[in-house]
Amino acid sequence: MMSKLAGWWRQSLRQRPLITNTITYATFYTAAELSQQTFNKIYSPEKPPLDFAAAARIVTVGSCVYAPTLYFWYKFLDRKFPGTAVKMVATKVMTDQFVMTPILLAAFYILMGIVERKEDIFEEIKAKYWKTFIANQAFWIPGQTINFFFVPTHLRVVYVASASFIWINVLCFIKRQKTEKTA
Known about the structure:
membrane, Mpv17_PMP22, 183 residues, transmembrane helix
């Protein structure tokens, strides 16, 4: 059964890479968000119930923005900086982390503010952006180095989706931290 599913997935990845990558990303995003909520339910003193609406918002933003953007971004990086020589990989990683990452992190917080119908959609980005950016660099610089050295181009979004299972838990943890109002 698993080999049939894996074969179907590989064929779908070849025939419909964008939609397959998006579905894969959505699956990992959903699993990560629900695992983060479950962790909170078990270990936080408040014992919050699972919030499927919040999960749907995070998964929607992540899947509709991140997966397609990353699909085309990695194609661009591989075309612009071909190969796996140390200099090319370092260039890809630095370009990814210091060009695309700031945009994607800002988009995440702003879009989440919009779908959560917050009065101030910039409140969280002002309070949490730099903490998120630093955590992102600590996680993704090594992660993207592995990606650009060892992962075939057509599997880059899948690799990132897999690694994102951990990263999304971190991102959701940071997002759930209370924001202090500034005067």
